[in-house]
Design a protein that fits this description.
Layout: E1 2-3, H1 6-14, E2 21-22, H2 24-32, H3 42-49, H4 52-57, E3 62-66, H5 85-102, E4 107-112, H6 114-118, H7 120-132, E5 137-140, H8 146-156, E6 159-161
Parallel strand pairs: 1-2, 3-4, 4-5, 5-6
Helix pairs in contact: 2-3, 7-8
Length: about 170
């Protein structure tokens, strides 16, 4: 279940949510009061949740790390800029090392926004590289069809998150 801050996380848990997800858009909208249009950055999210080691100490079970540049945009918005695969792999390796030091069960999900700007094949290639670097799951942002999700899951062979949100690029896949 998507949450926007610690209070909403507590409410979702009390309502029976089995897993919680904090988005950059949620932080931008609820904590800062601005749209998710590259106004906020990772520091703003960290103010709400802290680093990998701090997250583990706090009982967080997972994080996702994005392949966008630091001044990121909402995944369903146009004109996203991506870092190189090598830079994203460096990000993941740091997180994996921290995870392995403190909690081997902590889940690291790698998010790729490549589908919108580079296409399905590039998104799958990035996902494969991220899994090779230690990502446990893939967040495939703004995929347009169920067939593309099926293809992604088959090729990367780990769980793939489907970010289905009102007004997003991904249609309701029910």
């Amino acid at each position: 279940m998507g949450v926007i801050n610690a209070y909403s996380a507590l409410q979702a848990t009390k309502a029976g949510a089995k897993a919680l997800y904090l988005s950059g858009a949620g932080v931008a909208n609820a904590s800062i009061g601005v749209p998710d249009l590259a106004i906020t950055n990772l520091e703003d999210v960290l103010i709400d949740v802290r680093t990998i080691k701090e997250m583990i100490r706090a009982g967080v079970a997972a994080v996702h790390i994005e392949d966008q540049v630091i001044q990121k945009r909402c995944g369903h918005r146009p004109n996203k800029e991506l870092v190189s695969i090598d830079e994203m792999c460096d990000r993941l390796k740091v997180a994996v090392d921290a995870r392995n030091e403190f909690d081997k069960d902590f889940v690291i999900m790698a998010r790729t926004d490549a589908h919108a700007s580079e296409g399905q094949s590039a998104a799958v290639n990035r996902a494969l590289a991220y899994v090779d670097c230690g990502a446990d799951m893939i967040f495939a942002e703004a995929i347009h069809t169920l067939e593309e999700y099926v293809e992604s899951v088959k090729q990367v062979n780990v769980s793939v998150l489907a970010n289905i949100t009102e007004f997003g690029k991904t249609p309701y896949l029910v």
